[in-house]
Amino acid sequence: MPDASAILGATAFLGFSGALVYAGALAGVAREALRPERRTMGWALARGLPTEPTAWGLAGRERTFDFDGASCPVFEIGDEDPAAPTLIFLHGFARSRYDALARLGPFLPYARRFLLPDLPGHGDASGRTTRLGTDEDRFVEALANDASTGSLLLAGHSLGATIAVHAAAREALAPRVRGVLALAPYERLRTPLGARLELRAMPRRPLIAPTLTVLAALGIRERSTRESAARVTCPVAVIAGELDPVTPLEEARAIAAAARVTRFACLANARHDDFHTLGVGEIAAAVAWMTAQGAVPSTA
């Protein structure tokens, strides 16, 4: 007959080991969320992507913008006049201004200036970590006020798309924003966190709520992109991929439906990162639609 104390000891050991594994997995997920892989010049060169702000045949320069403990490189492309119509493109999670630069082509006819920043905690930005959309809309507002005085178009991919929507809803910035283009936006932070767990064959249900609790203790809070879209007064165009494993099609559709003036498109057979290839024509059409809706929107 097995010794009871041995069974209890083995059970306790297995339980303790399981708890350590679980805690390690939880810490790893939270750490990766707050300190994403840096995609910088080497990443771009390895993929044959442009690395210079002059890559599109326009004047270009690089500057550094400081915000709340972060020093963020910014590509400034095109007209140097701060009053010129300006488009700000916001990259996605674990990407950088180099990724934004590669996606710029369809936007070129619709603005005279382009600002492509590394978001805090991404690319070559130094200082504070990412806040995963908690306050990066303030970053966009501060950058816009520092670098431009004219009308604005905001565009972004994934995390950058949600930040663009939140920024356009900010009362002080809204009068200048002529339109928002959101590529693969999601409703709340739990969506991409859970998707990345599943893509790595990790269990979503046991890890997502505790991870959000840990992030909340560190000041990271979930926000509803749909609620911000409902407050945006300018045209909002949303483009989603039919086969996107990160952003559910229904979430992107609901964000578009919440906006007052809206356009939604689904790219057939497109996944999360296919917009710069499969979506070029639809992006151009969406930006043309936004700019055709009128000049600076009313905040009434």
How would the blueprint of this fold be written?
Blueprint: H1 4-34, H2 41-46, E1 60-67, E2 70-78, E3 86-90, H3 97-102, E4 113-117, E5 126-127, H4 136-147, E6 152-157, H5 159-168, E7 177-183, H6 190-199, H7 204-217, H8 225-231, E8 236-241, H9 249-258, E9 262-267, H10 280-292
Parallel strand pairs: 3-4, 3-6, 6-7, 7-8, 8-9
Antiparallel strand pairs: 1-2, 2-4, 2-5
Helix pairs in contact: 1-7, 4-5, 6-7, 8-9
Describe this structure in words.
This protein is α/β, with parallel strands linked by helices and 300 residues long. It has one domain (35-188, 223-292): Alpha/Beta hydrolase fold, catalytic domain (Rossmann fold). The protein has helices spanning 4-34, 41-46, 97-102, 136-147, 159-168, 190-199, 204-217, 225-231, 249-258, 280-292, and strands spanning 60-67, 70-78, 86-90, 113-117, 126-127, 152-157, 177-183, 236-241, 262-267. Strands 1, 2, 3, 4, 5, 6, 7, 8 and 9 form a 9-stranded mixed β-sheet that branches. Strand 3 (86-90), helix 3 (97-102) and strand 4 form a beta-alpha-beta unit. Helix 6 crosses helix 7 (204-217). The longest helix has 31 residues, at 4-34. The model is unreliable at 295-300 (pLDDT under 50).
